[in-house]
Amino acid sequence: MIEQPVQARRGSDGYQVVNVAVDGGYHPAVIMARAGVPLRLVFSRDDDDACSERVVFSDPRVDRRLASRGTTIVDLPARPPGAVRFTCGMGRYRGSIEFAEERPATTLGRLMDQADRLRAPLGTALVRWIWSMPIIALLALLAFDLTAAIVMAGAAFIGWVAVGLWGLGRPLKASEGNHATRH
Ligand SMILES: [Cu+2]
């Protein structure tokens, strides 16, 4: 049976968390996680198979005994993007964790994210302004008035500059923390 990868959820104390059932293998066997955020794995063992006794991680090298019945927590430190494998003591049960940079789900969100990375509020405003052009063009088409379209485009640009400047003044958010750990 092929199982779907499971994305680690946001937990408390800055951890991302995923539950893994150990019963003739690891469920899920493929875990998607965010790079730069510590990962907490909550293993729950449901069988008495010798394979369920230990779990060994490739990098960082972590070797842990799992409680025979009940849960065992394994915390991994923040990782760079890449894969970490985990197996039982003999390598029969296999799992992997894919650490990837966090990305906004939508195309618009991704573009906004890239725009934010330009740092300069003017650059951000320009990208957002260009992005809003189709809407401005559509409105101009509906109004069929060139002067109104130019005024609207100008107003949109000033608006995005204002938003960009305001954004610089805000305290750093969680995503900024991720950047810091990579430096
Ligand atoms: Cu084994």
List the topology elements.
Elements lengths: L5 E2 L1 E2 L5 E7 L3 E2 L2 E5 L4 E7 L8 E4 L4 E4 L4 E7 L5 E6 L6 E7 L6 H11 L3 H23 L2 H24 L4 H9 L1
Parallel strand pairs: 1-5, 3-6, 5-11
Antiparallel strand pairs: 2-3, 3-4, 6-9, 7-8, 7-10, 10-11
Helix pairs in contact: 1-2, 2-3
Bound molecules: copper (II) ion.
Give your account of this protein's structure.
This protein starts with 5 loop residues before the first strand and ends with a helix. It has helices at 107-117, 121-143, 146-169, 174-182, and strands at residues 6-7, 9-10, 16-22, 26-27, 30-34, 39-45, 54-57, 62-65, 70-76, 82-87, 94-100. The chain has two domains: 6-100, Sandwich (Immunoglobulin-like); 107-182, no CATH class. It is built from four helices and eleven strands. The protein is elongated and about 75 Å long. 37% of the residues lie in helices and 29% in strands. With 183 residues, it is an alpha/beta fold. Bound molecules: copper (II) ion (CU). Copper (II) ion binds next to loops.
